[in-house]
Amino acid sequence: MSNKESLETRVSRFLFKYRITPHSTTGIAPAEMLMSRKPRSRLDVLHPDVRQRVQDQQKKQKELHDQHAVDRQLRPGDLVYSREYGKQQKWCPGVTNTQTGPVSYTIQLEDDREVHRHQDQVIHRETPISAKR
C-alpha cells in the first residue's frame, strides 16, 4: 500500500480482507455468513473459472479411474485365496467370515487360522480346493 492512501481507504481494505477470510472455528467468512453468499475478491476477478476448472478435472479423473475400477464385493462364505507373506505358498485357500470395513475382511484359512485382509489381498475362487485335480 502506498503512503498516499487515506486512512479511511486503508481501514476499508483491511476490513474487507478480514471479512472475506474464513473464520478458524466456523470455516465460513463473516461476510458470507451475513450475506449468505461469498463476496467477490480480487482473486475471484483474476481467476473467475478456477472452481469450474477444478471440478472439470476431478470429473475427468473420476471417469478415467472408473474405466479400470473393479467392484470386488465379497460375502460371508465366499471361497477365496488370501495373500500370505513370508511363506513359500503365496496364496492360501480360505473362506470369508465377515466384512470388517469398507474394503477389509476376516478370512478363515483352511489351516484353521483367521486373518484380516484388504480386498486387494484377496482373490475370489470358483470351486473348493478339494474339487480340483
TrEMBL record:
Matching PANTHER family: PROTEIN CBG26694, RIBONUCLEASE H
Gene3D superfamilies, per the entry: Ribonuclease H-like superfamily/Ribonuclease H
Protein name per its UniProtKB record: Uncharacterized protein
Gene Ontology MF terms in the entry: nucleic acid binding
Superkingdom, natural source: Eukaryota
InterPro entries: Retrovirus_Pol_polyprotein, RNaseH_sf
Comp. bias intervals (Basic and acidic residues): 114-127
Species in which this protein is naturally found: Paramuricea clavata (Red gorgonian)
Chain intervals for the UniProt region annotation (Disordered): 114-133
